[in-house]
Structures are given as structure tokens and as C-alpha cells.
Amino acid sequence: MSTYGLWLSAAGMKVNDHRQTLLANNIANEQTAGFKHDLAVVMQRRVESRENPAGVGLAHPVLDGLSGGVNVLPAYHSWEQGPIDWTGKPLDVAIEGDGFLTVGDGEVTRYTRNGALAINAEGELVLATQSGRWRVLDVSGQPIEVDPEGSAPEVSGNGTIRQGGSDVGQIALASVENPRVLRKVGENLFELIVGETVPGKGRLISGSLEGSNFDIMQGLATMIEASREYQMNATLLQLQDQLTGQAVTTLGRVA
């Protein structure tokens, strides 16, 4: 029975360590434009060894009726709309509603809600990141070019970009029917795991950015809760280890 308790406590530590990792990332990106926070609220029963095809398949008259503890499923992302914050910068665009900006580096295509845009030396519209490699794509999948020496481009609600009184391109908004087919790949970007995208139905708000949808106060409270639960399981694990050691020592003396 002591081994059973060790496994339960270890499972509890594993789950809460995972929760803390996700929460730490959420907190670090609380000021990141268009950030969608991760959730670790889906738990499942950990499979006992007798039910595990890779296990030995042993049965126990007492333990078979007990839980195998908990395990955590892969995290999923919250797609709730973040707050729209006014910046006054003409190339900042917030997405209100459904959709993602489509960006590419010439080899792969990615999707983001980060609307902080800039113009590179080649006159291409890009995400304003340190690398500057992600070019914003138009409805035909091509980079959008503007005159870097011309007047400031204006972005309309449907993504049309005007400069000097002429249309120079239209930002593509992409969407998916099942958000679970999108996976985070860093730089506040998503990749499409399977399937195809459809046109997004949201609208762009020029001069604004969508903020993170993470509630920092709720996140800090949950972080404290996860930390306490991790510590409680660690304490129980240590106590059970001590009891096991005492039992082994006592039985050894009797023998």
C-alpha cells in the first residue's frame, strides 16, 4: 500500500508542476499583444499498471478498486477575445472577432493575433519582432509591399491597405473550424497541424492592439494554489518514504 501512496503523491506533483509551468508562461506574456493563454484544467484518471498495455498486467484484490491517481492532458488555449488597447500607431491592428493574421518567412506559414506591424528595408509589411522575418501575407498568399518613403499606410476594417490614395494590398485573415488544430510554436505564432484554413470573419481596428486575454490576478491566485498542492504532495511523498524505510528496518530486525 505504501508504494500505491508514493505513486499518488508523485502523480499529484507531476500535475501541479505542469500547471505551474503553464501559469509562469502566461504571467510572462501578460503584456504580449494578442497572446492567448494556456489552460491545464483537463485532468484524467491515471491508468493503473494492470490496464496499461505496456504494463505487467498484475491484479490486486484491494488496489484494483482504487484510483490510479491523476494525469494531465495536453494543454489547450483560451480563444477568448482580449481587450482592445488604443496605441495611435497607424500600423498597429487589433483583430476584433474571428481570425488570425497570416504571416510567412518564405518557407513556412504561421498565424498570429499579434497586430504590431512595421515596414522593413525592402518595403514589406512585417511583424514588429526582433527577427523581422515574418512578412504579412495578403489574400493571395503573397507579401504586402508598400512604399517605405511614402505616406503612412492606412488599414481599413476588412484589411485593405491604402497609401497615397491607392490600394496596395489586403491583409488576409484566416480562421479554422476547430481551434485544436492550431499549435503554438513560439514568437506568439501558431502553426496549422492538419486541415486547411477558411477566411476569418473578424475585422481589423487600426491604431490599436489586442491585449493578452490572461487575467493576471486570477493567474497569481492559481499559481499559489498549484504551488501549495505541489508542496503538500511532496511532503506526503517524503512521509511515505520514511514510513517505508521504517517498515523495512523493522521487518529486517524481526527476520
Report on this model:
This protein is of the alpha+beta class. The protein folds into two domains: 113 residues, no CATH class; 127 residues, no CATH class. It is 26% helix and 25% strand. The strands form eight sheets. Strands 7, 8, 11, 15 and 18 form a five-stranded antiparallel sheet that branches. Helix 1 runs antiparallel to helix 2. The chain is elongated and about 90 Å long. The model has no long low-confidence stretch (mean pLDDT 85).
Give the assembly state of these chains: single chain
Q: What would you call the shape?
A: elongated
Beta-strand content bin: 15-25%
Number of strands: 20
- The secondary-structure element order is HEEEEEEEEEEEEEEEEEEEEH
Mean pLDDT: 85
In the residues, how many domains can be counted? 2
SS-derived structural category:
alpha+beta
Taking all Cα atoms into account, the compactness measure Rg is: 26 Å
User: Treating each run of at least 4 consecutive H or I residues as one helix, how many helices?
Assistant: 2
- Report helical residue fraction: 25-40%
Distance from N terminus to C terminus (CA atoms, Å) equals: 21 Å
Q: Quick one: biggest sheet?
A: 5 strands, antiparallel
Low-confidence stretches: none
Brief characterization of the structure:
The protein has 2 helices and 20 strands.
Features:
25% strand, 255 residues, three-stranded antiparallel sheet, alpha+beta
